Amino acid sequence: MKRLALLVLGLVLCACSNTHKEQNASIQLVEIYPQVQMLLAKKAAGDEEGAKQIHDFLNKMANQHIIDDTISLITRASVSGYELILPSQLEAERDSFVIISTLPRGIYNLGFIPQAKHFEFALSPNLNENGSEWNWEADALSREMEDFIHLLGGDKDAKIVFYDSGEHIFAPMGSAHVGLMWARHLGYKNLYRLVGGFEAWKGLKLPISTEVPHCCEM
């Protein structure tokens, strides 16, 4: 009986450990982000020994898939022409940003970063029937482009940050990435994506609001 109790306890602790790791994946991504930046810089400089040391350190901090996701996040931002911002940085400078949540409306209504406006996008870019890019109707889930431009505002130099859950980075790319690409396509210049997304924001116990901005009331 005692052995059975110990076995059950072990299984419970194992399950709790796995759940904890899953819940904190976005926070782990935020925590290793500076080190992954250093890793990529070492590789770009041809410093393989330095890169190996950082990679060995990273392996002690997070699972490989989280490291890979962080690399994908940084690489995609660089290639796509937008910046990345950590939750703590956004919280410190929140009043200087236009904040756009690209999460589904039902999730947004449950809580969002204070002052965040809402505009949902698809999880990955869609092609037109002829194979060309920039399929607004599919990417924006049939909402009007004028509504999107209205939320962003007329200042093309304004600092604008997009966030989704933070769960989709490699494939699919994430709705925040799709929104960012359209904002850039429309001429907005100072664009940011929130590292770790809303899951990291919540996990770090940063402020959450349910007071929907006037622009986004249903």
**Class by alpha and beta content:** alpha/beta
Question: What global shape is seen?
Answer: globular
Helix segment tally: 10
Mean pLDDT: 90
Q: Care to count the β-strands?
A: 5
Quickly give the CATH architecture of the largest domain. 3-Layer(aba) Sandwich
N to C succession of SSEs? HHHHEHEHEHHEHEH
How many structural domains does the protein architecture include? 2
In terms of quaternary structure, what is this? Answer: single chain
Strand share of the residues? 5-15%
Which sheet architecture does the biggest sheet show? 5 strands, parallel
The CATH H-level homologous superfamily of the largest domain: Rhodanese-like domain
Signal peptide: 1-21
Keywords: Signal
Pfam families: Rhodanese
Protein name: Rhodanese-like domain-containing protein
